[in-house]
Design a protein that fits this description.
With 284 residues, this protein is an alpha/beta fold. The chain contains 9 helices and 11 strands. Strand 8, helix 6 and strand 9 form a beta-alpha-beta unit.
Length: 284
Amino acid sequence: MKFGFISSFGTIDQHVALARETEEHGWDGFFTWDAISLGGEWAMPVYDPFAVLAAAAAVTERITLGAMVFAVPRHRPWELAQRALTVDRISGGRLVLPVGVGVTDDRGFTSVPGQATGLKERAELLDETLAWLERSWSGEEFEAAGEQIRTGPFRFPEPPVNGRIPVWPVGVWDVERPPTKNLLRALRWDGIVPQLRGTADDLTTNDIAALVEWLTAHRPDEAEDRPFEVILQGKLSSDPDQAAEQARAMADAGVTWWIESWWDPAKDSAESLLEKVRQGPPTL
């Protein structure tokens, strides 16, 4: 199992410094987040995720880079494709794209007339944008004529470093009523960032094991040779032995990426994140 860390708070300089420290202290991935303008306790400076990741790529050599998660329906497909390709090239192929429908309390949705805010509409935009993005990696000229996205000819002559950029959609899990359409979206791509349906509760090892069993049973034959990641976010114990025990249990259940996530504006800060990064990931 690999270990990543989300830089949830800080100035732009602190985010970039944390990326360097993340690599130096043995983590496998550095992640930022994607928002435009938030209110309330989240009324703080928020930076363009691709710019942060480009800067992080310049000060690291090994670690995976991404954002938890990219709010795809808020991005124009052709701009998303160009920015992702730029960071992929700068980093030597280390970019991943965790993706979701976005949260509508972001003013990038609510303060823009005509922006998609309904869940169904955002889900359609997510699917069509991802399809557009994948076609941009072909090197061939293409057009789009979807329900949400219609474009004339585009061509991106330079492909990603590794031919494609891994895409990790958010997937909702419910052991009693598995949301098939949502889960099959993840199976079309390269991984899943799972969350429990209708709750912000953490997934248990039993939840993960049941999800992995469902995904394995429904994985398309043509995708079996392609790596598929199960990415879980949360907080491990500050005690190294307990953290290692927790991580081993998640790995045994099928988690392939654990992402340390600290999101409390009242308790967490750039300084506390740096302290946690310097402790390093658990040793399995």
